[in-house]
Structure to design on (139 residues):
């Protein structure tokens, strides 16, 4: 009986050591999971904040360009010579084509920024759901 009890005690000690090792591994894994979740979440928060600031600055710049285009200069009125009407008409047509081109460029840029904002929002929502899913999975 003595040898059986000793074998049982040896097996018990071995099992206790294995349980201790497994619990240490689980603690390390759970710490790693929490640290990775915190790191990923903070990274996405920083990306979202910088993206918002970038979009704000871009919108401010586009608004200032658009307001400059819409406002007429009050410096003085140019009166072309009266003996060259075709030159004046040619100049006016070029000026109107340049104004149309500038308005098209600003509207296209603002639409591109709106599309980028939409894409940033979708990506941020996707990664937010992704991180929440993995956080719940770790728990």
């Amino acid at each position: 009986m003595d040898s059986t009890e000793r074998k049982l005690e040896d097996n018990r000690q071995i099992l206790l050591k294995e349980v201790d090792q497994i619990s240490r591994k689980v603690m390390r894994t759970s710490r790693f999971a929490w640290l990775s979740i915190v790191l990923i979440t903070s990274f996405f928060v920083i990306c979202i904040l910088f993206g918002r600031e970038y979009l704000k600055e871009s919108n401010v710049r586009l608004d200032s360009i658009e307001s400059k285009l819409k406002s007429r200069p009050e410096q003085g009125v140019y009166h072309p010579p009266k003996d060259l009407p075709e030159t004046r008409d040619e100049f006016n047509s070029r000026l109107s084509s340049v104004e149309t081109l500038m308005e098209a460029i600003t509207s296209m840029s603002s639409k591109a920024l709106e599309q980028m904002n939409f894409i940033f929002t979708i990506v941020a929502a996707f990664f937010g759901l992704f991180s929440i899913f993995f956080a719940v999975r770790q728990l």
About this structure: Residues 7 and 13 are 10 Å apart (CA to CA).
